[in-house]
Write a structure and sequence with these properties.
The structure holds 2 protein chains of 2 kinds.
Chain A: H1 4-22, H2 30-46, H3 49-70, H4 79-119, H5 122-128, H6 133-171, H7 176-185, H8 189-215, H9 221-250
Chain B: E1 4-13, E2 16-26, E3 31-35, H1 42-50, E4 57-62, E5 65-66, H2 72-79, E6 82-85, H3 97-108, H4 113-126, H5 142-154, E7 160-164, H6 172-189, E8 192-197, H7 200-206, E9 209-214, E10 217-223, H8 224-229, H9 236-244
Parallel strand pairs in B: 3-8, 3-9, 6-7, 7-8
Antiparallel strand pairs in B: 1-2, 1-4, 4-5, 9-10
Helix pairs in contact in B: 3-4, 3-5, 4-5, 5-6
Classes of the chains: A mainly alpha, B alpha/beta.
Chain lengths: 251, 249
């Protein structure tokens, strides 16, 4: 039995954990990290708003139309559509779909930025200056993701609801009042907590996994591209695994 | 001026030994050159000295401190007295030229913004690039990038200056200008300068003390005058290296 992939997996996990541990040591000036955190938060949040809006709107709209299509019995109240769409948006669609999309946009960006710095010796330059490159590069991105992801997911949740209401009204499947009655009827405050826990967890996964893939790039432009792709794939897989684990543990 | 010496440095990559028990004293205030053919281990040795690669054996002494085994605080204090010019310049793409040169000043000093800007202007002027603070690395030539890299390296008045293939890939005129700058900055800042190169024209231009590596071994060390003046006393590999470059008959 070939154990090499397993050993490689453990090696990757070990190096990932060591990089994470290093990211919290050797902090320099607070002002420096504050600036970096601000830049990362703004870039992650602002640059993703339009994409998140488009995707969330259509996810909400499609879910409404498809739910209406599946409810054929006249004995099921129309408000049920609102309840199903709203609960789905809060528990799954807003945090998970948004994060999967952001893994592509933000994850590949982080991996290619850090990977390019690695192959052009910019990370070596930081180390030679006595700056802990892991802290300088990973920590602001991690904190930026932990800050911006919950905001983006809340925003996605609102837009998904809007998409659902508009699509329901447009197709005549459910009117806004019925939608709102259903959504409110099945709402529990813990659902929002669960959504935010997911957002923070997925933000952590995307930022650290992508930073890890970029940080250990060896070679040139080709390897940076490969690391960027790997960052997206691994982040998406980890998000799906974490999604299941969190649902199992918390619901 | 601070001393720098390495003792018994050995490095393996997997089963391949790339450095064999290398010792050398780098002369303070002089341009010390590590030369040798491509793949002989020059850059690996340089990276071992500055701590980017951990050798399996040996010591790197900055003054009386064993750099490889000292505590993190001492290590950081040594690194802050050290400037390095990378082969690829290693300028930060996201920052303009002025921010690149100012970066170590902002991180490690308490200087006011006015003092930082004055120092940046001085360093850039010193390398012949006054007034390009607002350009980004992508907007300047390879030779200019090297000079900006030098300006960043000297921003903190380092005691040690390390240069990895400083003029590779540059046209002859620009390459000579970079050599002159390294020599001038060594004398002006009294740095212990270590230059890795396989360009023997650079050795002739600015080298003072020479360490010749061949296949990961220190085959010869001595002054440039001896190397060029008494070729019959040199080991065969160094003679062949010099002969291939037309420096000796």
């Amino acid at each position: 039995m070939n154990l090499n992939p397993l050993l490689k997996g453990f090696e990757d996990l070990g190096r990932y954990l060591l990089l994470l541990a290093r990211s919290f040591t050797g902090l320099l000036r607070f002002r420096l990290y504050w600036q970096l955190w601000t830049i990362e938060s703004i870039q992650m949040g602002r640059d993703s708003i339009f994409l998140v809006a488009i995707i969330s709107f259509f996810v909400g709209a499609v879910t409404t139309v498809q739910t209406a299509y599946q409810i054929v019995s006249p004995f099921i109240p129309k408000a049920t559509i609102g309840a199903i769409v709203s609960t789905s948006a809060i528990l799954e669609l807003a945090p998970t779909v948004t994060s999967l999309v952001l893994a592509g946009r933000i994850g590949s960006n982080i991996a290619s930025q850090i990977g390019s710095m690695r192959v052009s010796e910019q990370i070596d330059a930081l180390e030679v200056m006595g700056i802990n490159s892991a802290t300088y590069l990973v920590l602001p991105r991690l904190l930026g993701a932990l800050f911006s992801f919950p905001i983006l997911v809340i925003y996605a949740c609102f837009v998904a609801h809007a998409g659902g209401i508009i699509a329901g009204a447009f197709t005549g499947a459910v009117n806004p009042t019925q939608f709102a009655v259903g959504a409110r009827g099945f709402f529990q405050p813990f659902q929002l907590v669960f959504m935010l826990i997911k957002a923070v967890t997925f933000g952590f996964i995307i930022s650290t996994v992508s930073a890890y893939q970029g940080y250990y790039v060896k070679g040139g432009a080709l390897e940076v591209g490969a690391a960027s792709t790997r960052a997206v794939v691994v982040s998406c897989l980890m998000i799906l695994v974490a999604d299941y684990v969190l649902a199992q543990l918390l619901l | 001026m601070s001393e720098l010496r390495i003792e018994h440095i050995s490095k393996w990559f997997g089963k391949q030994r790339v450095l064999h028990d290398i010792s050398f004293f780098f002369h303070p205030g002089k341009v010390n050159m590590i030369i040798g053919p491509s793949g002989c281990g020059k850059t690996v040795l340089l990276k071992c000295i500055v701590g980017l690669i951990q050798p399996e054996q040996g010591q790197v002494w900055f003054g009386k401190i064993d750099f490889l085994r000292t505590d993190p605080a001492s290590r950081r204090s040594i690194l802050r007295n050290l400037g390095m010019l990378f082969q690829s310049s290693a300028l930060f793409d996201s920052m303009n030229v002025g921010e690149n040169v100012a970066f170590p000043l902002r991180v490690f000093t308490e200087q006011s913004e006015k003092e930082i800007q004055d120092r940046v202007a001085y360093c850039l002027e010193r390398v012949g690039l006054a007034g390009i603070q607002h350009k980004y690395p992508a907007e300047i030539s390879g030779g200019m990038k090297r000079r900006v890299g030098l300006a960043r390296a000297i921003a903190l008045n380092p005691q040690y200056l390390f240069c990895d293939e400083p003029n590779s890939g540059l046209d002859p005129l620009t390459a000579r200008r970079i050599d002159e700058l390294i020599q001038e900055l060594t004398y002006e800042f009294h740095t212990t300068t270590v230059v890795v190169t396989h360009d023997l024209k650079s050795v002739v231009d600015m080298g003072e003390e020479i360490l010749f590596l061949y296949d990961g071994r220190a085959e010869w060390h001595g002054s440039k005058a001896v190397m060029l003046g008494q070729p019959e006393s040199l080991p065969p590999n160094l003679r062949a290296f010099l002969r291939a470059s037309g420096l000796i008959e």
